[in-house]
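Q: I'm writing a short methods note and want an example of a predicted protein-small molecule complex. Could you take the sequence and the SMILES for magnesium ion and return the bound structure as tokens? Please keep the output block clean; save any remarks for afterwards.
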Amino acid sequence: MQKEDFVDRVLIHVKAGDGGNGAVSFRREKYVPKGGPDGGDGGDGGFVILRADASLSTLLKFKYQKKFVAQDGQHGRGKKQAGKSGEDLIIDVPVGTVVKDAKSGEIIADLDRHGMMVCVVRGGKGGRGNVHFATSTLRAPRIAESGERGEERWLELELKLLADAGLIGFPNVGKSSLIAAMSNARPKIADYPFTTLIPNLGVVRLNSGMEYVLADIPGLIEGAHKGSGLGNLFLRHIERCSVLVHVIDIACVEGRNFLKDYDTIMEELSKYNIELLKKPQILVANKIDLLEEDELEKRLEKLKQYTNREIVPVSALTRQNIDILKEKIAQFVGESKLKLKMLPAPPFEKPKPFKTKLELKFDFEIVKTKEGFVVKGEQVEAWLNRYSIEHRDALVRFLELLEKNGLSERLKQAGAKDGDTVWIGSYDFEYHE
Ligand SMILES: Nc1nc2c(ncn2[C@@H]2O[C@H](COP(=O)(O)OP(=O)(O)OP(=O)(O)O)[C@@H](O)[C@H]2O)c(=O)[nH]1
Ligand SMILES: [Mg+2]
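A: Understood, no commentary inside the block.
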């Protein structure tokens, strides 16, 4: 498996808020027996929005939460009071997350900039209150719109795991042992060079909740930039890490010279791509458990003088200073992520709330059942959802509309006789020719 194949993938379900219903209400004043309509509008449902955040590195949090629901809009009330709109729900995902519709596989967005946002489901439009329905002939309208349901869908989130930091160094210095001590990765560890043949990724999590992705990269040797020991392949992976963690065997178990080791690795980096030397680099002196304290001090001092870099002495074996190293890398990763955050995100425009389109001319079916004749159709459902026909004027208006679209004629064709029952939604009436 190549590093390109380390993919985090999760399915989540998102639902936007429903719109609130419009109110049917009439003014009540002293000495005015029947005031005009004053039912306010329902609020719009909240949207669900995904936002890229450079401080995140993985999709792990979605293993624990998969359902996301934005707030509903509130219903309208009397005295023309509009219902409050539902709050939008913003879900933060790592930069680099590709958002797909889980059903169709269609790519909705590629969130590759910090702060970039995409609306994945629209809140339902709030219904209008009866104030909007007064006309010269209908002064006290008992009719209002219901709120629309918010959209919902399953999403697939996919993230190519890119290592924030990479462990580099000679073979056998303890890179795999270190990633095993710091993260969830469980690579093969053995006392011979070139144990690791492909990069391993691990997620390091700190007590603060911060997390980053660490790569264990196979050992480099002299001539790596020319391809020795597949080094050029591994150097390509190193190019993609923002922080380098350079591991040195300070105990020099194989009679190595740690200063020379340091130089060799630095030279291979620079020969492959001089830009690699500009990456933030932490020096890790591993295997300190093998040295007496005096000897260790002497060697660390020498290394410091020679490299002029910050050094973290650790032991992957005894875990001494592992937590300090985790924090140190986190600090470097945090700084490099800060730079990512400076890049401007493309502008975000929130779409309009969702509202079903209602047609004045439409077709429908008459289905004969034991209970009577049922009027059915997509637009019939849409109209019934928009207007609750327990309000008298809404019912009258809808029956008129159905009649214009040929209701009586269709019922007759279907074999309806005087006295038969006809169903429209939950409303039933008797058919007369
Ligand atoms: N005493 C001691 N031994 C260690 C320490 N860290 C690693 N080792 C040993 O060093 C050997 C090599 O460790 P690995 O983690 O496989 O080294 P590597 O750098 O991943 O090696 P390659 O994959 O070959 O590049 C193993 O025998 C480890 O047990 C340490 O801190 N102290
Ligand atoms: Mg290894």
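A: Remarks, as requested: The longest strand covers residues 7-15. The first helix runs from residue 175 to 182.
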